[in-house]
Design brief:
This protein is an alpha+beta fold. The chain has a single domain, classed as Jelly Rolls. It is about 15% helix and about 30% strand. Bound molecules: 2,5-dihydroxybenzoic acid.
């Protein structure tokens, strides 16, 4: 009788909470994502191979997605975030489009490419952070020599989970330049002197490019005087000059310098994090995995996973770019952290 009752309630579109309770209300989060490291020297030859055999007329974007083994379908890098490595060759263009997902590029190597974002050409140099916030038109073009490669970061796993994903192609292959090149970076890079004639406060930073030259200047300015974080080293947040907040409502970006011999404390937080090694080498213990990273590698730290960063060099800095879903998690009142 009781078994029949269970079948009957299932047919009525119901389920007994008492059989599911433990799965629905865990004592703490258990990410399906796993700690994982992608080694750049292993990926690069295949990026160049596909640059050779696949034209940009055949692919919307020529990108190797960094797929977390715990999140194969739909592919994602952490539960909420995506990372990919994109390559474009001299003379190529990548079709203009826009999506409600927010995106950025962190430039890895090459020279002479730019992305056009809502009519502004934004030029790329290694170490630059370029934003293409949600629903901004963007296409890429390369007028230099040699391949140009960068890290793409997007929030589409989160946006799709929220069923808020929209996508649209631009009417032409590329946008025309409508404002002077790199105008947004030049207007805003001084941070505390913002244009008073055209305030456009919105949820996104108005800066097209946070150039590496300014990042290096920021580190130089504080030099050895900064205390830094016990877990994350001398860590700086890229901010929205309108409000001092994160660069986009769903994605926060940071850059950290781990001094020679740095050994972080063990920490965990509800946001998930994707790291890109700008410089140096070291290791991060993430739950039970030891991720031994070198320059240009990418690694994923799932939400609520314990992590500890170590700069294994006693003479060289390590520099880690990172991004998280912390702005979204914080806005929803779900941010937690713990230092072991
Ligand atoms: O360059 O616009 O890796 O739209 C994924 C989706 C890059 C891009 C990605 C995209 C792009």
């Amino acid at each position: 009788m009781t078994e029949e009752a269970y079948e009957a309630i299932a047919r009525l579109g119901t389920a007994p909470l008492w059989r599911y309770f433990g799965n629905l209300f865990n004592a703490e989060p258990r990410s399906r994502a796993v700690p994982y490291l992608w080694r750049y020297p292993e990926l690069r030859p295949y990026l160049l191979h596909f640059a050779d055999v696949l034209s940009l007329e055949e692919a919307e974007r020529r990108v190797l997605m960094l797929v977390n083994p715990g999140l194969p379908d739909p592919p994602a890098t952490t539960t909420t975030l995506y990372a990919g490595i994109q390559v474009i060759l001299p003379g190529e263009t990548a079709q203009a489009h826009r999506h409600s997902a927010g995106a950025f590029r962190f430039i890895i190597e090459g020279r002479g490419a730019y992305t056009t974002v809502n009519g502004e050409r934004v030029h790329m140099h290694p170490g630059d952070l370029l934003l293409t916030p949600g629903w901004h038109w963007h296409d890429h073009a390369h007028e230099g020599d040699g391949p140009m490669l960068w890290l793409d970061g997007l929030d589409f796993p989160l946006v799709n989970a929220l069923e808020a994903g929209f996508f649209e192609l631009f009417g032409e292959r590329t946008q025309k330049a409508e404002v002077p090149d790199d105008i947004s970076s030049r207007q805003f890079i001084h941070g505390r002197l913002t244009p008073a004639w055209d305030p456009r406060p919105g949820p996104n930073s108005p800066i097209g490019n946070y150039p590496w030259t300014e990042t290096a200047r920021a580190f130089d300015a504080i030099a050895e005087d900064a205390t830094g974080s016990d877990a994350d080293g001398v860590v700086l947040e890229y901010t929205n000059p309108w409000n001092g907040g994160p660069v986009m409502p769903t994605i926060g970006c940071r850059i950290a310098r781990l001094r020679p011999g740095f050994r972080g404390v063990v920490r965990r937080q509800t946001p998930s994090t994707i790291y890109h090694v700008v410089r140096g080498s070291g290791a991060s213990r993430v739950d039970d995995q030891l991720l031994e990273w070198s320059e240009k590698d990418v690694f994923a730290v799932p939400g609520w996973a314990r992590y500890q960063h170590v700069n294994s060099s006693t003479s060289q800095d390590a520099v880690l770019f990172s991004y998280t879903d912390a702005p979204a998690i914080t806005a929803l009142g779900l941010y937690r952290e713990e230092v072991a």
